[in-house]
Amino acid sequence: MDYNGAEIGSYTDNLIGTLLAIFGNVLVSISLTVQKYSHVKLAGTKEHRAFYRTKTWWSGFIFTCLGELANFVSYAFAPLAIVAPLNAVSVLTSSILGFIFLRERLKPKDFAKQYGLVFLGYILVIGGAYLLVSFGPNSHEKLIAANIVKHLVGWPVLLYLLLEIITFCLLLYFYKRRKANYLVIILLLVALLGSVTVLTVKAVSGMLVLTIEGTMQLNYPIFSVMFVCMVASAIFQAGFLSQACKLHDSSLVASVNYILSTFFAVLAGAVFYLEFSNEDILHICMFLLGSAVCFLGVFLITKTKKKARIFEPCVTLNMSNGVPTIHDKGPVIQPDYSGSFSYGTLVNNNGVAPAPLPVHLETPPLGPRTSDASQGHPAIKRD
């Protein structure tokens, strides 16, 4: 639907948005690995410095900012239905980086047996990403403030928001009052908030890009409304996701959260921005197939044996795309003190090196024991 003759994004815009999303997710994964390396390297030295005083950690932080910025801008160029599922690229990159730094020596047969499903997950994620990008929405509306308001007051959006609010309130009631700490309930709360986040992120990103291009959009009240909703929903979303990681297995949280958050993000884009209104049944079916293949690939990757610690999840909420990414920043891995970086022994979670044990322990004086003599032990010589 084209409101007020609004310009429709071209194939080139879709390509730019897709590449920005892939680049941003890869950069975020690399940045988290660099920051973890900073913690590990600091734990292996005798220096008692805070991690934020190291150049390595700050370089990782800069990479994070650049990656999140790329993710944020990607929503202004590509449809939400394409950008949101590409969060699987971040999961894929994190797992591959884990393999690179793992350096575990196994026989080829044992390695294939232990990690065969992981590599199958890699193939599924890559293939699913190709399908959903190829058969996703070909064009999307370049959002201006007036069009966002018209979308917002349309009856499909109002009905969708009403159903979402009712569902959210019911789930929150069972979670808070009935103490129903089931994983599905908590992650459904995260996904419902995430759908609001991605809607507002796309609106804010689109208006900012149009403003930079010369069409001022920041003086409209809808921009302030969308910005406030974006920040608020992201904060509450991070809180619920943190609770899920505390109460349940992190690898299970990672896979289920990606599936639910992506599903509701795509659904919100289809209802609010009418991204599939001009698509035929074949393209929609192939897009759904690609999404399902991505879901299966992420599930296989995140269910890696904990012994290997290839994928060590915890909460990292990407403000730029609204879909929480599960990465690991702890427990911190103690390095090999031979100088090589290893995902080996687990230590404390705060990045502080373990307290050194004394090397020379004083032996307590031994007195004469009659039983020693009777058992044939040699007598202890006294000074």
Structural features, described:
- This protein is mainly alpha-helical and 383 residues long.
- The protein has two domains: 1-78; 79-308, no CATH class.
- It has twelve helices and four strands, in the order αααααααααααββββα.
- The chain has helices spanning 11-43, 55-77, 80-83, 88-102, 108-134, 145-152, 155-176, 183-213, 221-247, 250-272, 281-302, 370-374, and strands at 314-316, 325-327, 333-334, 345-346.
- The strands form two sheets. It has a two-stranded antiparallel sheet. The chain has a two-stranded antiparallel ribbon with strand order 3-4.
- Strand 1 (314-316) and strand 2 (325-327) form a beta hairpin.
- Helix 4 packs parallel to helix 11 (281-302), helix 7 crosses helix 8 and helix 10 (250-272) packs antiparallel against helix 11 (281-302).
- It is globular.
- Mean pLDDT is 77; it is low at 1-6, 305-315, 326-363 and 366-383.
The number of E-state strands comes to 4
- Our count of helices gives 12
Largest sheet: 2 strands, antiparallel
Shape annotation: globular
Strand order across the largest sheet? 1-2
| Total domain modules | 2
> What structural class do you assign from the helix and strand content?
mainly alpha
Portion of residues in beta strands equals: under 5%
**H and E order:** HHHHHHHHHHHEEEEH
Distance between the ends? 99 Å
Low-confidence stretches: 1-6, 305-315, 326-363, 366-383
How much helix is in the residues?
55-70%
